[in-house]
Write a structure and sequence with these properties.
With about 180 residues, this protein is mostly helical. The chain contains ten helices and no strands. The chain starts with a helix and ends with a helix.
Length: about 180
C-alpha cells in the first residue's frame, strides 16, 4: 500500500508511470546486492574504517542526488549509486562492532545494532508517508543527510583504525567470479 502511495506521489513529480517507478527500487536493490560480496575484499584492501566512511559519504551524497533528481533516469542512476555505497555499510558495521567490542560485550553490541536494523523497516514506511504527505517525495531522501553527516563524524571519532593490507599482497579480485 505504501509503495503504491509513494509511486503515485512520485508520478506527480517526475511524470513516471507506476511501472517505471519500480526501477527506482530495483536499481537500488540490484546495486546493493552486487556490492555486498565485494565489501569484505574492499574493506581488506582499503581498510575497514576507510571503506566504511567512504560508503557513508557516498550514500549520503547519493541521497542528495536522489532528492534533487529532475527526471526518472537521474533518480534511477542516483539510487544505483546509493545502492553501491549502501552495500558496504551493513557488513562493515558488523565487522567494526566485532573488532571494537570484547567478546563478553559482543552479544549486547549486536543486540543494540539489531534493534536499529529491525526498527528501520518497521518505522520507515510510516515516517516516509508523513514526509511524502507533508513535505514531498524528495524528503524521503533528504532526511538521510543529517544522519549521514552525524554518522560520518562519529565514525571518524570512534571507529578503530584498521591496517590496510599491502596492496600487492592482498588477495587478487577474480574478475570471472565477480562477473558471474
Amino acid at each position: 500500500m505504501m509503495e503504491s502511495y509513494f509511486a503515485n506521489k512520485l508520478e506527480l513529480g517526475l511524470g513516471a508511470t507506476v511501472s517505471e517507478v519500480g526501477w527506482v527500487v530495483t536499481g537500488y536493490a540490484i546495486a546493493n546486492v552486487v556490492l555486498i560480496p565485494l565489501s569484505a575484499w574492499l574493506g581488506d584492501y582499503f581498510g575497514r574504517k576507510t571503506y566504511f566512511i567512504f560508503s557513508l559519504i557516498g550514500f549520503t551524497l547519493a541521497s542528495v542526488l536522489c532528492g534533487l533528481a529532475f527526471n526518472l533516469s537521474m533518480l534511477v542512476f542516483s539510487r544505483i549509486l546509493q545502492g553501491l555505497c549502501g552495500g558496504g555499510l551493513l557488513a562493515k558495521a558488523q565487522a567494526i562492532l566485532f573488532e571494537t567490542f570484547p567478546p563478553a560485550e559482543q552479544g549486547l553490541a549486536q543486540a543494540v545494532f539489531g534493534v536499529g536494523v529491525i526498527a528501520g523497516p518497521a518505522i520507515g514506511p510510516t515516517l516516509g508517508g508523513f514526509l511524502v504527505d507533508g513535505l514531498g517525495w524528495r524528503w524521503i531522501f533528504f532526511v538521510n543527510i543529517p544522519f549521514g553527516i552525524v554518522a560520518v563524524a562519529m565514525s571518524f571519532m570512534f571507529c578503530p583504525k584498521t591496517k590496510i593490507r599491502v596492496r600487492h599482497k592482498a588477495k587478487p579480485l577474480i574478475g570471472s567470479g565477480l562477473g558471474f
